[in-house]
Amino acid sequence: MAKVREKTAGQPKRKAQKETESLQEMIEKRAYELFEKRGREHGRDLDDWLEAERMIKQTKKQ
Predict the structure, then answer these.
(1) The pTM is what?
(2) What is the spatial distance between Cα 62 and Cα 57, in angstroms, rounded to a whole number?
């Protein structure tokens, strides 16, 4: 029975980790789209990331 507890104890953590990875992947993709839309101008990666993060989080709230 202890083995069952060990398996289920980590499940919520793994699910949250997968959701976080998925969110990060979505932001990464959107940031790259913004980068391309601006003509691939380098040096504004943080701006693109923050804007993508804002956009993704805004759509998740709706």
Answers:
(1) 0.68
(2) 9
What share of the chain has pLDDT > 70, as a percent?
84
Q: How far apart are CA 30 and CA 45, in angstroms?
A: 12
Q: What angle do CA 6, 8, 10 make, to 5 degrees?
A: 80
Neighbour count for residue 6 (Cβ, 10 Å)? 8
Tokens describing residue 31: 């940031």
44-59 b/e with 16+ CB inside 10 Å = b? eeeebbeebbebbeee
What are the φ/ψ torsions at residue 5 (nearest 5 degrees)?
Answer: -60, -40
